[in-house]
Glutaredoxin domain-containing protein (Berryella intestinalis), 80 residues
Amino acid sequence: MAKLENHVLYWRPTCPFCVRVVNYLDEHGIECDMRNVLEDPTAYDDLVVIGGKRQIPCLVIEGRALYESSDIIEHCAQHA
């Protein structure tokens, strides 16, 4: 398993784009810290502070927000 250090994925299990990213990570044995916005009441607030919006999926890389499932998957493929 590859671990992406200093990466946090904000996601929701009812979001198809989020599920796409999570499935990619699982299928390729990639781990990173994850925050389910439905289970973590402060997660959306943190997203606004970090990236200025509540959009998910969002991969936070050393404090920088990356949006769009295809961009997140591409990043993970290159850095895992």
Notes: The chain has a mean pLDDT of 96.
